[in-house]
From TrEMBL:
Species per Swiss-Prot/TrEMBL record: Rhynchophorus ferrugineus
SUPFAM superfamilies reported in the protein's UniProt record: C-type lectin-like (SSF56436)
Database matches in PROSITE patterns: C_TYPE_LECTIN_1 (PS00615), C_TYPE_LECTIN_2 (PS50041)
The protein's name in its UniProt record: C-type lectin domain-containing protein
Cited InterPro entries: C-type_lectin-like (IPR001304), C-type_lectin-like/link_sf (IPR016186), C-type_lectin_CS (IPR018378), CLec_Tetranectin-domain (IPR051663), CTDL_fold (IPR016187)
Compartments where found: Secreted
Keyword annotations of the record: Disulfide bond, Lectin, Secreted, Signal
Amino acid sequence: MSMLHETCKLKLIISVLVLVNINAECVSPKKYVVSSDKAGFHTAFITCRQYGYEPAEIHSLAEQKMVEELLKNEKLGLENGYWIFATNLDEKKAYYWLNSGRRLLYSNFSAGQPDNYNNMENCLHVFHTTPGRFAWNDIPCNSNIRFLCQHNQVCD
Ligand SMILES: [Ca+2]
């Protein structure tokens, strides 16, 4: 009986520790960073990890606004945009976020996009439209452009 009690207590302590641990590692609100170098989509994906970040995903209008806030004062890379890490490479139909595997429940495509121009476009970037605004578009995955990463252990 005492033994059982101790086991329950231990489980409770472990549960609390796990909760505390998750909270401690969360970065909230979510934070994005922009790369200084350029790369193709898949190299950029790995490079985010090498920087100690995750490849950036935009899951809501609020996150889109955060990205626009980050990029609005950027001078470099405006002409070519920045990778966000969604692709349709596996089934060539529906886009999904490569790191989390989530579908694009929120999106902010430019008018007429994604158009898979010349049947060669399977990766997404955000690009400058009007001052302070950025929309999404599909481009060839081997395009050499800057990219967005996000902090690890996002709380959402
Ligand atoms: Ca396109």
